[in-house]
Design a protein that fits this description.
single chain, alpha+beta, 5-stranded antiparallel beta sheet
Length: about 130
Amino acid sequence: MNGHFGQLRVWFKQLAKNERGGILFLTLLVLFAICSFFLWLLYDYERERMYLDQQANLLTLENGLQVGLMQIAHDPELESGEWHYPSMTVNMKKMNNRYLLNAKLTNGSERRANVYIDNNGKIIRYEEGV
């Protein structure tokens, strides 16, 4: 085992003395390490940006469903409706004592919810993500 570490020590000494083109090898190794670090930083930034975009889309969709929920709470006799906003469209349909809410973003993402009401028009149950 000592022989291998001794060979490595000799090899690094040769590289440091610039024998057998050692400076070129060390330069390429350092450039490779620097490029790898910057590529990792770029990958990490893109991953974080994608996560934040997903969270923003989810929050926008949930806000759209809340708009539909407020419409139901305001006017329980409303049979159906469609509301258009710059970034999304909210659809609502009534089926017996259940409202089907559908919020869809302009990029294609969508989220659905069921809202159940009683005979007095009060909301008794809300199921999101169905």
